[in-house]
Amino acid sequence: MADTAGCGKGGWTLVMKVDGNKNDFNYSSSYWTNKKTFAVEDGLEGLSEKQTKMASYWNTPFTRICLGMKVNDVTNWITIDKKARSLFDVIAGGATTRTTAGKETWKSLIAGSSLQNNCNDEGFNLRCQINELYMRVRIGLVANNEVTCDTCDSYIGLGVSYLGCGIQSTITCGNLAVCHSSSHYNADTYIWAFGYILVQ
Fold this sequence. Notes:
Elements: E1 13-19, H1 40-43, E2 52-53, H2 56-59, E3 62-71, E4 74-84, H3 87-91, E5 97-98, H4 103-107, E6 118-128, E7 135-144, E8 154-164, E9 167-169, E10 173-177, E11 189-192, E12 194-199
Antiparallel strand pairs: 1-2, 1-12, 3-4, 3-12, 5-6, 6-7, 7-8, 8-9, 8-10, 10-11
């Protein structure tokens, strides 16, 4: 469900902050698979626009996860029900774990976001690939113009690596939609976002 009030209050614990313009937290980054912090002092500032990875990534159990994306000074939030011992336990092993928030919920994170019609796979450790390249997303939703998920060219997510359709995206957090128009978008879309991950 969408949470327009945000998740910075009410018992939420900050886990990570991800700058979509930077490469520190792309899909292949070891920070998703290790128990090392990143700029803890910037995490202690709260919801500022400074990247961080807190020890809560591996030591905090939760039943809900909250995701925020800030674009043009506007932050939108969604919450997803998910029970786990920690976010590390969900992500570090590399197994895909699917969620059911729905496409419109993910799109609500970014005003004017675009996604292709098909595939619509969402969750953790998503991979659309016919080889070692193509699209990989740690948390988010991927979509494709084709029925299969092999060659997706659109996503909304955090922790992204994408090399496909002649493009290597530098958007590690945000929204990308390229190569084929659909009823969900009519032009290529590149939106960098600052992302927040909190748990409760």
